[in-house]
Amino acid sequence: MPSFLQSKDWEPVSLKHLIQFAVGFGLFLALLFWSPTGFCLIVDHANLLFHEAGHPFVGIFSRRLEPYGGTMGQLVFPIVLEQIK
Ligand SMILES: [Zn+2]
Fold it and tell me: What span, in angstroms and rounded, lies between the C-alpha atoms of 13 and 16?
């Protein structure tokens, strides 16, 4: 496990960063709310990101399964997030 994941020393979130997060999240919600086609640039392009990241990730373990890694990455990420929720 990488050392940064083992560290238990977390920095508190400053008010400035909390406000920046709230503004960014508010803009994201506005984008979702006003998307006429249902296509949300940030979310749908993130889906592509997980698809493409799945290829080399699966390729580490199996060259034969690497072409399928895109679909696996695209499907696994939402399923994992749904389980965490
Ligand atoms: Zn692909």
Answer: 8
